[in-house]
Write a structure and sequence with these properties.
Layout (H helix, E strand, L loop, with lengths): L9 H11 L7 E8 L5 E2 L10 E4 L3 H10 L4 E7 L16 H13 L4 E6 L13 E3 L5 E4 L1 H18 L3 E4 L6 H11 L6 E8 L6 H8 L21 H14 L3 E5 L5 H10 L4 E5 L1 H12 L5 H15 L3 E4 L2 H5 L5
Parallel strand pairs: 1-3, 1-4, 1-12, 4-5, 5-8, 8-9, 9-10, 10-11, 11-12
Antiparallel strand pairs: 2-3, 6-7
Helix pairs in contact: 3-4, 4-5
This protein binds zinc ion.
Length: 334
């Protein structure tokens, strides 16, 4: 394999590379996946997600301690419940896995950790969609019902805020989700709870490794689940800009773009045109591709981890959500 020529130690080289693009520990957000299973285990049985776990409630505090010990203080929580139902009831339950985990983390670590919670129904609803589905007259599945989904998202966001979330992150791409959640939070006294809007979430098979973990048990067609009616198409940068502008007008405190590497032109364009706090998520498929290619000996894993995150920062992201957060933290002084 051809390697980049490196003078001095490889650690120094990567540390300098991170420094050159301005990467700091405070820019990094670690995704954690909390599960209703009684014990923790790997996120996936394949090696391509190695190092990532489904964390049982009893192990949450211990896992967060390890993240804090690396100097990372922001994390985003995704819930993986045991059961789905029609209407995603466990997504808004006070005893839901995200709510219980958030309460435990806040009780232990208080303000020293910044908790962001994923607000959506796709891990909880029987359909696997990010919005509630209307049934057709012949009882087949019909379109997504934007407005009834907004009510549900607001209730989920309030339950996360009550549990202690610092930032709620609506990821369903429903129109009007930010304004509706903002007014619901305000009406319950959560004016200080911030909103990170998943503003430009592109439809992509790059989410597949995560979906395999979170969906495959009850949603057998998870590989072909079509979310293109509410997510953005590859070819549509203008829609990405419109979605970002709409979310800012609706009161988002931070906007978010995902996946990352195929969309760095969009990240750069939004930085130039809008310049608003922007997070970018390096998603499960992007992590899995690096690990799979490295295992085959085709690429150098460490080089790709560092250069992926450095490239996202270079393109203009303020914050980066990545499975590689812990791997990168070791190169950063602060
Ligand atoms: Zn979703």
């Amino acid at each position: 394999m051809e390697k980049v020529q490196i003078a001095g130690s490889i650690m120094d080289f990567y540390a300098q590379l991170c420094k050159n693009v301005g990467l700091r520990k405070k820019d990094l957000i670690f995704p954690i996946f909390v599960s209703e299973l009684s014990s923790s285990g790997p996120l996936s049985n394949s090696n391509d997600m190695s190092g990532m776990n489904k964390i049982a409630l009893k192990d949450v505090v211990q896992n967060v301690q390890k993240i804090i010990d690396q100097g990372i203080s922001s994390l985003i929580i995704f819930g993986i419940p045991n059961k789905r139902d029609i209407g995603a009831s466990s997504a808004l339950s006070n005893e839901g896995i995200v709510q219980n985990s958030t309460r435990k983390i806040k009780k232990e670590f208080g303000g020293s950790v910044n908790i962001i919670t994923d607000v959506c129904i796709c891990q909880y609803d029987l359909s696997g969609h990010c919005g509630l589905q209307i049934k057709n007259h012949d009882a087949t599945e019909g379109n997504i019902d934007n407005d009834s989904t907004l009510d549900l998202l607001s209730k989920i966001a309030i339950s996360h805020a009550e549990a202690g979330a610092d930032i709620v992150a609506p990821s369903s791409m429903m129109d009007g989700q930010v304004i509706q959640i903002r007014s619901a939070l305000n009406s319950k006294g959560f004016k200080n709870t911030k909103i990170m809007a998943f503003s430009a979430k592109f439809a992509s098979s790059l989410y597949s490794p995560f979906r395999k973990t979170a969906y495959s048990k009850q949603i057998h067609n998870y590989k072909t689940l079509d979310k293109s009616s509410y997510q953005i198409g590859y070819e549509n940068p203008r829609q990405a800009i419109r979605e970002v502008q709409a979310d800012i007008q609706e009161g988002a405190d931070m906007i978010m773009i995902k996946p990352s590497l195929l969309y760095l032109d969009i990240v750069s364009m939004i930085k130039d045109k809008i310049n608003f706090p922007m997070a970018v998520q390096n998603v499960s498929g992007e992590c899995a591709m690096v690990k799979a290619a490295a295992r085959k000996g085709w690429i150098d894993e460490e080089e790709w981890k560092v250069s992926s995150i450095a490239a996202i920062k270079r393109a203009g992201a303020h914050s980066i959500i990545s499975y590689f957060t812990m791997d990168i933290a070791k190169y950063l002084d602060d």
